[in-house]
Design a protein that fits this description.
The protein is α+β, with helices and mostly antiparallel strands. The chain has 3 domains: about 65-160, Thrombin, subunit H; about 180-275, Trypsin-like serine proteases (Thrombin, subunit H); about 280-375, Roll (Pdz3 Domain), CATH 2.30.42. It has helices at about 1-25, 55-65, 85-95, 125, 265-275, 295-300, 315-320, 340-345, and strands at about 65-80, 100-115, 120, 130-135, 140-145, 145-150, 155-160, 180-185, 195-205, 215-220, 230-235, 240-245, 260, 280-285, 285-290, 305-310, 330, 335, 355-360, 365-370, 375. It has a 7-stranded antiparallel β-sheet with strand order 5-4-1-2-3-7-6. A 6-stranded antiparallel beta barrel has the order 8-9-10-13-12-11. Strands 15, 16, 17, 18, 19 and 20 form a 6-stranded antiparallel β-sheet that branches. A hairpin with a 5-residue loop joins strand 4 (about 130-135) and strand 5 (about 140-145). Mean pLDDT is about 80; it is low at about 40-45.
Length: about 375
């Protein structure tokens, strides 16, 4: 019995040694061999895996009927001979009969049906100064459009058509947009017809681009070209994410940097235009300027947030409240003021007539000033 036990122990020891050598030198020999899937209806279901999206057809089909092509026309005077450089001489020449001829200029863009009673959201620059506006739907119908109102400072406009059975796009009210989300741009680039391109959300909150006065763009690499302006930027469920507005390009074509106005902001502006014919924003009557490191050093500031008042409009709300050039505004109603762009966006939603409290620094001392907000004058784009 003892000899059998010793033989068993030696055998186990040798087997373990062989296993150790194989595991060290040829671990692939011990890898699990691939299993051959069972054939026939009784085959076992494969293990769950991450679903792969192969098509966005459903999202595009859901939103396409809500995106329209917009065609505008306007008459311009084209000089028959080169106009003189002097403005006064040019004005005199224009009064001469036959100096110029009237020519029709056409433009194209896109829009989105947002209400079943015929309201369409688009860009202001698509319909600016147009004498006539026509809208073509994806089902082949066409209609004359009326300009309800516009907001040049955000580059949005609202049109209205009189057609039945309109397909209204869904807004993504309860679904916040994140960087990296897949988005689809639908529009009429270069007038070739309705086109869909795909990309992702590249960035959020883009501003200081010099496109509009109020900027808070979604940046995307979905191809956006001339003619896409006013079209829809949608998510993979077909909900409206933004209104395609501009591209960054030196050639006029898409370079993978496009900008869209967020749908929530566009909806707020649209509602004001439909109800009041225009957008009302709060206004202080000051020219804010960012605090640079040099300015912070000159004013002996320990902080670089806040804005310095570079100008005060005479008889404006700020002037009447006693705000002076050189004051540094650091808070508005206990909310920190970070820079001039953010400060304008803080003031804009405040209803005219309401009072706010500004915390500012003057002569090294902090003080609170109460200001009654005024109505921002409507500024036409040049």
């Amino acid at each position: 019995m003892r000899r059998l036990w010793l033989l068993f122990a030696q055998t186990v020891t040798i087997c373990l040694g062989i296993l150790f050598i194989v595991a060290s030198l040829r671990p692939d020999w011990l890898a699990e061999s691939p299993k051959v899937p069972a054939q026939g209806p009784a085959a076992a279901a494969p293990a769950a895996s991450v679903p792969q999206v192969s098509s966005y057809h459903a999202a595009v089909a859901h939103a396409t009927a809500s995106v329209v092509n917009i065609y505008t026309s306007k008459h311009i005077n084209v000089p028959l001979i080169p106009a003189p450089a002097d403005p006064e001489l040019e004005r005199l020449f224009r009064e001469i009969p036959g100096f110029s001829r009237r020519k029709e200029s056409t433009n194209l863009g896109s829009g989105v049906i947002v209400r079943n009673d015929g309201y369409i959201l688009t860009n202001f620059h698509v319909v600016e100064a147009a004498d006539a506006i026509r809208v073509a739907l994806s089902d082949g119908r066409e209609a004359k459009a009326e300009l309800v109102g516009a907001d040049p400072e955000s580059d949005l406009a609202v049109l209205k058509i009189d057609l039945p059975n309109l397909r209204v796009i869904d807004f993504n009210d309860e679904h916040p947009v994140h960087i990296g989300d897949v988005v689809l741009a639908i529009g009429n680039p270069f007038g070739v017809g309705q086109t869909t391109t795909m990309g992702i959300v590249s960035a959020l909150g883009r501003n200081r681009l010099g496109i509009n006065i109020y900027e808070n763009f979604i940046q995307t690499d979905a191809a956006i070209n001339p003619g896409n302006s006013g079209g829809a930027l949608i998510d993979t469920a077909g909900r409206l994410v933004g209104i395609n507005t501009a591209i960054y390009s030196e050639t006029g074509g898409s370079l993978g940097i496009g900008f869209a106005i967020p749908a929530q902001a566009a909806q707020i502006i649209m509602d004001q235009i439909i109800q009041n014919g225009a957008v009302t924003r709060g206004w202080l009557g000051v020219e804010p300027q960012d605090i640079t490191p040099d300015l912070a050093q000159a004013f002996k500031l320990k902080r670089e947030d806040g804005v310095i008042v570079a100008g005060v409009l005479r008889n404006g709300p700020a002037a009447q409240a006693g705000i002076k050039v050189g004051d540094i505004i650091v808070k508005m109603n206990d909310a920190a003021v970070l820079d001039s762009i953010g400060f304008l966006n803080q003031i804009a939603p405040v209803a005219p007539g309401q009072h706010i409290t500004l915390t500012l620094l003057r002569d090294g001392r902090q003080r609170d000033v109460e200001v009654e907000i005024g109505t921002r004058p409507h500024v036409r784009r040049p």
